[in-house]
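We modelled the chain as a single entity of 220 amino acids. Its sequence is:
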Amino acid sequence: MRKLFILIAGGGALAAGAAAAQVPATFVEAPSVEQVAAAYPAKAKAAGLSGAVDLSCTVAPAGRLKDCAVLGEAPRGEGFGQAARQLARSMKVTGAALGSEVRVPVSFAPGVLQPGFTAKTPKWAAMPAPSDFQATIPKHEDGPNAIRVVLVCDVLAGGSLTGCTVDREEPAGQGFGEGVLALASKFKVEPWSAEGLPTVGAKVRVPVRYDLKPVNQASR
């Protein structure tokens, strides 16, 4: 008998009964790729400049943000700070007390201006359970122990994934890609990525690793 270990990059190992990591505030609404592109400072857009802004905002009723102040802005004088404050009006958080201060990273990357923008570090709001993977992994006698699958998906409003395709499957041709693809509806991402970029309207990569080991090895 072999025991299954599953790792989703950026999300940590999945284990039955494990508690999800807690964060002070989670973004449940944020600007889309289209909105960020519309707010991109015209001068910086024309020059192909990227930018990064660190905001400090107060949590208002219903999780909205107010009184956002620019803590840091790079490069300065290109309008990124003002654009970030504008975008913060479209954000909503949970897990932070009314009146508390939250730090909001906002990044501007020229890629959001182009079709097919990919959010590189999405935060996972939901993932399949270990039992879901157990149910979809093909059973091969003396099959491979190390399996790698990467999906590429589009992100809808609300964080659900659509239009997923198998971008990588190792080993190929044994049904592992199809097994992960069948679980695509169980993945969900937060609307704001770890680097402060939008996920709604973007593409994301979903890297999954199966490590199948005999139980007597896995328990060591």
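As a brief sanity check on the tokenised model: Helices lie at 33-39, 42-47, 80-88, 130-136, 176-181, 215-218. Residues 1-5, 10-23 have pLDDT under 50 and may be disordered.
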